[in-house]
Amino acid sequence: MLEIWQHLLFGLQIALEPRHLALAFLGALLGTVVGVLPGIGPVGGIALLLPVAFTLGPTGAMIMLTALYYGTMYGGSTTSILMNVPGEASSVVTAFDGYAMAQQGRAGPALAVAAVASFIAGTLSIVALTLFSPPLAGWAVRFGPPEYFALMVFGLSAVSSLAGESLVKALIAMGLGLMLATVGTDLVTGVPRYTFNVPYLLDGVDFVIAVIGLFAVSEVLVAVEELAGEVRPRVALQRVWLSVRDLAESWWAILRGTVVGFYIGILPAAGATIASFLAYSLEKQVARDPHRFGRGDIRGVAAPEAANNAAAVGNMIPMLTLGIPGSSTTALMLGALLVLNVIPGPRLFQQHPDVIWGLVASMYVSNLILLVLNLPLVGLFVRILDIPPRVLLPVILAVALVGTYAVNSSAFDLLTTAVLGLLAYYLRRNGYPLGPAVLGLVLGDLMEQNLRRSLIMSDGSLAIFVTRPVTAAFLLLSALSLAAPALVRGWRRFRTADVVCPARHAPGARPRRGRLRV
Length: 518
Description:
Helix content is about 70%, strand content about 0%. By secondary structure, it is mainly alpha-helical. The longest helix has about 35 residues, at about 105-140. The chain is globular, with a radius of gyration of 24 Å.
């Protein structure tokens, strides 16, 4: 325990350097703006900033990107409460009671409790990350290539089974990411693969180029299509303040939301959106007056806001300690670290202590910066929504394309971004989730390398994956993860199925249908 606090003090020295403080402030500010803007979300914001982040070094880049990630969690609640238009997916639940509070003239308390809940949940979750990450990394350092391969298979299978409504579509999206990861020169044989004699593809599909096309460009295309949709009028903003009574009423909701969000965030692919829905559902179940939810109950704002911020911190644990991203956002951050030649995983704590502990310490700083930013400046952030979409969207697209060209100064990269953007637009409009595609792209190359190393260790025998206990356990969990959605749906149909009981009726009589109870 003493060693952990010594490492944390070392990290604070790094995080409090003027340059890193400025990057944390910039990331928090930009993240809040991105969160306020409907539809962009943390993935799109990080995708746009990746080219800039690569010029800052590993520590500076991760501090800024993490602060931006937090900022989107804070800022996303603003439009949910004032306009009933969620800034990003995890803020959808906040709109249920937040907008109702705003219509009742209580927009100020709703915004205040969202900021306070985010701060409390974020701080408590960072403490948990500080305490739990080193032991988990110490356990994972014993992993060999077979364990790493099985762990990556588990990460991909968990994402595919939880992302979107269709498992088949999620698997197809994941396959697309894995296919993109195979493009380029084979590291073992030196043979070009799927390059179609295009020399620009010998080094593979650049991660930054792919991400900007898949998320930023497709987001603009989707937003353009939805411009004709209805936009609700914004509610007038009063004083942002939280009374003692409001804090007392929402205190336990904040703590329960923190626990739910942090636990869900650690699970691969569950993410902040699922955490916010579960926290809101839990509050309704434990409340003595659940009928108040949806009509302006402050607990309906506190719980999901605490959950989505705690989940954002929880997502960092598997990414930093195991090299397995827990969400699409941490998949981008994982890719950023790989591009900067920093390999996330159990050895990160030994090989790059400045990166890991500087990042952890900066989370405390960024959390405080966001609280200071959001309470007094929320009215200023809301004014961004007054920018007409026909002006805002072209600016976002221009920034994305400039960032694309800046990576390699290549016109071919612009073409690649455009093609992937159109492909991602088609996938999104047809219900294919992009999260599994990004994870497939990020993990595909590492998974292939560990597969080959494992086969070299076993002289080509696949038995190595079932004779090693940890490897077999991860592969079993992968199979269960893929089968879980179908099993859950089957169990629900079984419990709610209408059954016919002919023995209770006279011959020829119409049988009565009843609900089967188990």
